[in-house]
Design brief:
It is found in: Cell membrane. GO terms for molecular function: penicillin binding; peptidoglycan glycosyltransferase activity; serine-type D-Ala-D-Ala carboxypeptidase activity. InterPro entries: Beta-lactam/transpept-like (IPR012338), Glyco_trans_51 (IPR001264), Glycosyltr_51/Transpeptidase (IPR050396), Lysozyme-like_dom_sf (IPR023346), PBP_transglycosylase (IPR036950), PCN-bd_Tpept (IPR001460). In the N-terminal section; belongs to the glycosyltransferase 51 family. In the C-terminal section; belongs to the transpeptidase family. This protein is of the alpha+beta class. Helices cover about 40% and strands about 15% of the residues. α3 packs parallel to α9.
Length: about 675
């Protein structure tokens, strides 16, 4: 360099001397910058090649039930497991001097640079495979000089620390193929439903052509354009001597079997359930959904595949297929709160709105157990009687309220709580609500975990509050488990892609929230909806499904003009089903009104078919007695029917039924 400066000083022509000094400074600056960049790259070391991986869901028994595919799908394969036709064609099309340059193709850069200068834009690209891989790993696809400089620096680091095959493998596993698909294996499975190693030359060349413009060259969206791109690639391969004339002819004329739809969720089990899992993951991890989807987590859920399949089967069998009626259903373990099955609608592909967790609908008579729990806690017994007849209630503000029973049926006499609950008498419920006060009913419902808005009004006894299926199933679980608080959940364990457990659901310490005696008595009263011995002026509400039931269940149905509910439980499973229309249109057809009960009954019986019968266990201080369900007195041999009822010791009936006497 000193010699060069001395030689320049000998030049007599002053402008030339200044020019050469300037050139020397520029050259020194460039060389210095290059050395600095190389040194900086060496100091930073090899860039991390880890890429986003799909979070995968597993059922409670470890079976894979689905993989996050709503945003992107990836499946990594090693280079020696990639079709040679895909490799060779990709190199020829994207970067034919890939194995001969050091990350940058100077000829392509100069040609592209001239075109960009002429058009005053950055439209013409000259990125090598290394640069594209760097962009896939670390950068966005925005067209700015800043991004291109970063891309060049990352490409330099890749070339310094990794061999060509590693870079090519990474590129082929991260390139975007449209429809949220990244990597050659995922693309092959998506477009052709086969492994990439099984692709023909025709299929491989079509696949290689997609990344250039994934939307325009998608064979699903634009088959003609994709085929034209494929033929151009095959022409290129033939002209460069990479394939023979025969291979070219056969490939251009081969008929391609391409999937007809871009739907990627069709093989996922329980998609509504998986959406609930995602919401829970966001809460647990405090991460954004996109980050969770691509973090490669392995999530063990509470899903019971057998229960889910039975719930789906029951829905398919009993939900009318000639209407737009929807369904929301949850099956839950009442002991620990694990959601074992869930359906959020009639068809996930048509609507992803989850009617089991997101929708809030009027509860109807399924709300009455909260009322009668309060009543049992405040002096009522199974034989407490009130008169069932048309009644106009005058409220504190001077207004009147006149509820009615189903189809206008009334006993026109005293009825017991046992019968009122079994036949769902509305007059009895409103009288009880006004006696206890609506504010007490609100307090009782909150004790069961209901958090939805509730107005303390007389009609609340008839379920005018709008609630979710999840809320109601969780509330009924407290009856099934003897009155202990329980929180529903779907995520059992979260592991990283490396197998590190970062979350494990802790077995809750169940706090006794409800009075055990009142809870047990109410549960026994709720078995009455299936007992025809409680028939009278109306039939018990579960009579239509009772003949199909072979185990002990407690439950309550509920109906409004536009909602049909059935929630019931055994000792180890609670299932709640809602059916109705999204637009709140009235349920007028008989089969529409009965669908919720039939779905529930089919589900519960299928799940319990191989289980030993079990009964609800009475806590201490409970006494049983056979009672005439009409009068509420102790049954005698002369009573037409009797039912075993339960009481807190000391509150049981002391007198015998006098309604049934021998005829003299």
């Amino acid at each position: 360099m000193k010699r060069m400066r001395r030689w320049i000083r000998l030049i007599k022509h002053k402008p030339l001397r200044f020019f050469l000094y300037g050139f020397l400074l520029l050259f020194s600056g460039i060389v210095g910058s290059i050395i600095t960049i190389y040194c900086y790259a060496l100091i930073l070391g090899p860039p991390d090649l880890d890429v986003a991986a799909n979070t995968t869901y597993y059922s409670a028994d470890g079976t894979k039930i689905g993989q996050e595919q709503g945003v992107e799908t990836r499946e990594w394969v090693e280079l020696d497991a990639i079709n040679p036709d895909v490799i060779d064609t990709t190199v020829q099309v994207e970067d034919k001097r890939f194995y001969h340059h050091h990350g940058f193709d100077s000829k392509r850069i100069l040609a592209a640079g001239l075109k960009n200068i002429q058009s005053v834009s950055l439209e013409e690209g000259a990125s090598t495979i290394t640069q594209q891989y760097a962009r896939n790993l670390f950068l966005t696809h925005e067209k700015t000089w800043r991004r291109k400089l970063k891309e060049a620096f990352y490409a330099l680091r890749l070339e310094l620390f990794y061999d060509k095959d590693t870079i090519l493998e990474g590129y082929l596993n991260t390139i975007y193929y449209g429809h949220g698909i990244y990597g050659v294996e995922a693309a092959s499975q998506f477009y052709f439903q086969k492994a990439n190693t099984d692709l023909s030359l025709a299929e491989a060349s079509l696949l290689v052509g997609i990344p250039n413009r994934p939307n325009d060259y998608s064979p699903i969206l634009h088959l003609d354009q994709a085929k034209q791109r494929q033929e151009n690639i095959l022409d290129l391969l033939y002209k460069q001597g990479e394939i023979s004339e025969t291979a070219h002819f056969l490939a251009t004329h081969e008929h391609l079997e391409i999937r007809e739809s871009s739907n990627k969720d069709e093989h996922n089990l329980a998609p509504y359930y998986q959406d609930v899992v995602m919401e829970e993951l966001k809460e647990i991890l405090q991460m954004k959904e996109q980050n969770i989807r691509t973090a490669g987590f392995h999530v063990t859920t509470t899903l019971d595949i057998a229960a889910q399949n039975q719930l789906e089967k029951a829905k398919n069998e009993h939900l009318p297929d000639d209407t737009d009626m929807q369904v929301g259903a949850i099956a839950m373990n009442p002991v620990n709160g694990a959601i074992e099955a869930l359906i959020g609608g009639a068809d996930y592909q048509k609507s992803q709105f989850n009617r089991a967790t997101q929708a809030k609908r009027m509860a109807g008579s399924t709300f009455k157990p909260f009322l009668y729990y309060a009543a049992l806690s405040n002096g009522y017994t199974a034989t407490t009687t009130l008169r069932s007849q048309p009644t106009t209630f005058i409220l504190d503000d001077g207004s009147s309220y006149q509820p009615s029973n189903f189809n206008g049926y009334y006993a026109d006499k005293e009825i017991t709580l046992a019968q009122a609950l079994a036949v769902s008498d509305n007059i009895y419920a409103v009288k009880t609500n006004l006696f206890l006060t609506p504010a007490r009913l609100v307090k009782s419902a909150k004790k069961f975990g209901i958090t939805s808005e509730m107005k303390a009004v007389p009609s609340l006894a008839l379920g005018t509050a709008s609630v979710s299926v999840r809320e109601m199933v969780s509330a009924y679980s407290m009856l099934a488990n003897g009155g202990k608080e329980v929180a529903s959940y779907t995520v059992e364990k979260i592991e990283t892609a490396d197998g590190e457990v970062i979350y494990q659901h802790k077995k809750p310490t169940l706090k006794q929230e409800l009075d055990p005696q009142a809870t047990f008595i109410l549960t026994q009263l709720m078995t009455g909806m299936f007992d025809s011995n409680l028939n009278g002026y109306m039939h018990v509400t579960g009579e239509s499904i009772a003949p199909t039931l072979h185990h002990t269940y407690a439950g309550k149905s509920g109906t409004t003009a536009s909602d049909s509910w059935m929630i019931g439980f055994s000792t180890d499973l609670v299932t709640g089903v809602w059916t109705g229309y999204d637009d709140n249109q009235a349920l007028t057809k008989t089969k529409d009104k009965h669908a919720a009960k039939e779905i529930w009954a089919s589900m519960m019986e299928a799940i319990h078919s191989n289980k030993e019968p079990s009964n609800f266990i009475a806590p201490s201080g409970i006494i049983a007695a056979y009672v005439d369900p009409i009068s509420g007195g102790l049954a005698t041999p002369y009573c037409d029917t009797s039912r075993l009822m339960y009481f807190v010791k000391g509150t049981e009936p002391r007198t015998y039924c006098s309604r049934h006497r021998t005829q003299e």
